[in-house]
Amino acid sequence: MNKYTIIFVSLLSFTLTVYGNNDLAHTAISLVPRPSQLAPGNGDYVFSAQTVFAVENKEQAEVANELIGQFTRSARFTPGLKVGGKKGDIRFVTDASLKDEAYSLNVSSNEILIKAADCRGFFYALQTIRQLLPPAIENSNVTDEDVDWKIPAVAITDEPRFSYRGLMLDVARFFMPKENLLRIIDCMAMLKINKLHFHLTDDNGWRIEIKKYPRLTEIGAWRADRTDVPFPLRRNARPGEPTPIGGFYTQEDIKEIVAYAAKHQIEVIPEIEMPAHCTAALASYPQFACPVVNKFISVLPGMGEDNGGMVFCAGNDSVFTFFRDVIDEVAALFPSRYIHLGGDEAAKAYWKKCPLCQARIKKEHLAHEEELQSYFMNRVAGYVRSKGKEIIGWDELTNSKLPEGAIICGWRGFGQAALKAAAQGHLFIMTPARVMYLIRYQGPQWFEPQTYFGNITLKDVYEYEPIQQDWKPEYASLLMGIQASMWTEFCDKPSDVEYQLFPRLAALAEVAWVQPEQKDWPLFLKALDNYTAHLEKKRVIFARSMYNIQHTVTPEKGVLRVRLECIRPDVEIRYTVDGSEPTETSMLYTHPLTVKDSRTINCATFGAGRQLGKTLALPVKWNKATAKPILGDKPNERVLTNGIRGSRKHTDFEWCGWPENDSVTFTIDLQKEEKMKAVTIGCITNYGMSIHKPGSVSITVSNDNEHFVSAKEINFTPEEIFREGSYVDDLLINLEEEVSARYVRVTTKGAGCCPAQHVHPGQNTRFYFDEIIIE
């Protein structure tokens, strides 16, 4: 019996234990998020034109009509609806003993009984039914499929772990058309996610109509077209340049979005950024910038070059009048009890030079510019409170005095700064960048569209536990919940956003709804497959990254060990070593492979007789340095001699980078004396991330690892170092003459800071190498 058979038998045994010893058909009851309690029954309930929903009042009728409407669109019938009657096939019964958002669902072959204390509970019960129905329920038109509109008999009692289960959607960097946004809201609702944090303003666009300030959308909603290069590479607009990229929501659009979300039990929380991330607003009304700003202000197509540090002038009282006016209109449009005021990443350089800001610091007896930001946020927050609203802000607000009653979104790192607010008795929400930022790569990077930083896989999101063991007990009671954040710098079309959101949003929902002791990764994957089948019918683009293979190739005693991994335990990895495409009959991967020469390993995941993930091609190129040790104790340097070249993504785990910018040295032990004529070093340039060639590379050699002699040094000009683009270069170093040595030492010197004309002037450069080739 192989390990995959063992896994299947174990899962089947566990499923029967949890769900009861009913017929095997009922082990297919798969829901995400997983219900608190579930007991399968016997038989199925079949929906038809004779099915009647019986509800108690008009509010419940609105909830029922959501599911009835889906039958109308996708099936060839419309179930009936009775308001105020007690007789029906699907009955709603108010049960005040249940908690907010909780529900009980009892399905038999004859009827469905739903109990809840509020409309949210009834709605979530119907979302459970929706997932139990065939995925064809999601069709936008009457299906031609022969569908049995039935669900299995089951008894479910369910309630959420956290009251705040959120998604932050950035529509400022990429404007999401209204129809696509509504579809995302619908997909959120199916997962019982109940908060949409709506990031409406930033440097790259102002997306909400404010009638008192029309230039915010006439100018601030539009930017120059730089879509031919990735976000970090984009240069600022020139005066007079056309600005065709963007869009905004009218106030009527906002009302429609809010109403649609409310029908889906989702609260829309607007965010108006301040005092930074405001260049779109300042491009519209430059008088709100500090008077020391003496450059053209445009809506930023990218990271902003030296305009990225723009802030609202904290010494200008008209700025606060502006925000009062904006908040008046925002508060009227959004019934949410919250308004998010941003507060993150505010550079202070202009405030330090601004006479108005310095006068404000003196007048208010503030110690420094950080306290000036606290003054700014507290002043605006006070006006928000006067409108009957509460404020939310990013965790930089904890750097100084917090506004009264502020709720903090912990985002930096693992969100620890939010605990500073909790220590002062403030509520908080966890949305840590290291786990919950969906802009990051969601699988093996060789297959993913380019974005920032490292990986946050589906499994990483699923395994996140917000409440840590070292927390003080009172912190857990102040945690409102968790949120995934979808920043859109690298999105140019709606499908880009959907691809990054799904299916990781389902893992967020599981963490937010399910008690940690009830989580089960294999069972979640089974439920996820059902959810993604629904997404397919809705024609939502979702990633299949969970089926792709991550490789690790490590030098070990003169050979290479190749480890292949997939985050799904229910797949087989099949591989070939002759360069041919893998099939379901290719060799089964069961343990790390040993490679001793140049060859190409092709591998992919399989299940049910078909290929599930993309084919991973690993061309191993052997040279005199391959599989040889790098002296020292830095594990990341092992990729320099593992025979695998990196991709154009410097975080794909095949590139070795160093934090030092001045000088780096490493030594390769060839294990014996070797003749050599050239050394080649794989080097990557990612101009937008300030990753460039080093200033110089020198090669020295030795036979005893003590006395080294120079073999060659090369230097690079600023033009060579700072050439724009993202590309891989091979730094070829032809030695002065053929040498014979055992030890090869590479010493590099950094290129210093980015020059003034760079997209990131003054920022420290970094360099990354992927392979040392000795010939």
From TrEMBL:
Residues 162-515 form the Glycoside hydrolase family 20 catalytic domain. Residues 561-611 form the GH29D-like beta-sandwich domain. Residues 651-750 form the F5/8 type C domain. Residues 1-20 form the signal peptide. Its EC number is 3.2.1.52. One of its GO terms (biological process) is glycosaminoglycan metabolic process. One of its GO terms (cellular component) is membrane. It catalyses: Hydrolysis of terminal non-reducing N-acetyl-D-hexosamine residues in N-acetyl-beta-D-hexosaminides. The active site is at residue 345. One of its GO terms (molecular function) is beta-N-acetylhexosaminidase activity. Residues 29-158 form the Beta-hexosaminidase bacterial type N-terminal domain. Keywords: Glycosidase, Hydrolase, Signal. Belongs to the glycosyl hydrolase 20 family. This is beta-N-acetylhexosaminidase. The lineage of its organism: Bacteria, Pseudomonadati, Bacteroidota, Bacteroidia, Bacteroidales.
